[in-house]
Amino acid sequence: MENDENHVANAMRMHLAGEIRAWLGRRNRSQSDLARHLGCNRSAISRRLGGAQDFTFVELTTIADWLGITLADLLGPEILQTRRSPHTDLVG
Asked: Are the C-beta atoms of 13 and 51 separated by less than 8 Å?
């Protein structure tokens, strides 16, 4: 059961990283630009986009605002529609 949860978490982490990279490309911004905006170094962004470290909620909202999009746009439809259990939904 725990391996399944880890697999789902890893898949979501990698999907989110892909969405962020795609939005950076759409806005013609680099990982270095993102690092500067978040006040961290490029390797910290690389770890997050590589799935080794999670983005914080504050970072995600800051990124969405910086890119001029909503948090829902940044997360993408797959994450927003993911069910973690039969009784809960990530979208209300």
From this structure: yes
